[in-house]
Write the structure tokens for this entry.
Amino acid sequence: MHTRWRWVLFGLGGAVAASGPIAMAGGPWYGYVFGGLWSLMGGTVAWRSFRMGTKLSADGITSNSLDRQTAIQWCDVQSIEPHRRRNLIFFHTIAPIVRMRHGKETLTDLSLLSIKKDVVPERAQRQVAELQNALRHHRANCATCGAQPKVLATSQSILGRLWSRLRGEHRAQS
């Protein structure tokens, strides 16, 4: 999953990186310094925006944004829901938020701008639903984060039925 802005940022970073050598071409010493810095900054933005996105795996969620990479284990996640923040003057930023046992993490690489204050965009709803489905799938198959293995659950129900039958026969004899 990734945002549409990924390609815009990739193009801008590439353009800034390409303008660095133009500033260095035949210029004074400070042209080389600033041209090198422009190339380095533009290349970094292009590389980070190309890797930007959220990846789901059997272990958890890996979120790559422009400024950092976050790895969240499925067993630490309590809930996933859309989160709204006010941004600039007219816009609201809507992004999935992962509530964990020890805090929360906003998946900023999936954020969307919205003018409407009380509506969650359809794309954000789909992303949250996909994350929630992956969390449900993990919980159904994981023994460490609260779900019981299927064999253990059925053996307990068989023992429970056997125990209730034995108690019923004991009461009938008394």
Notes: The longest strand covers residues 77-87. Residues 22 and 35 are 7 Å apart (CA to CA). Helices lie at 5-24, 29-50, 122-141, 150-173.
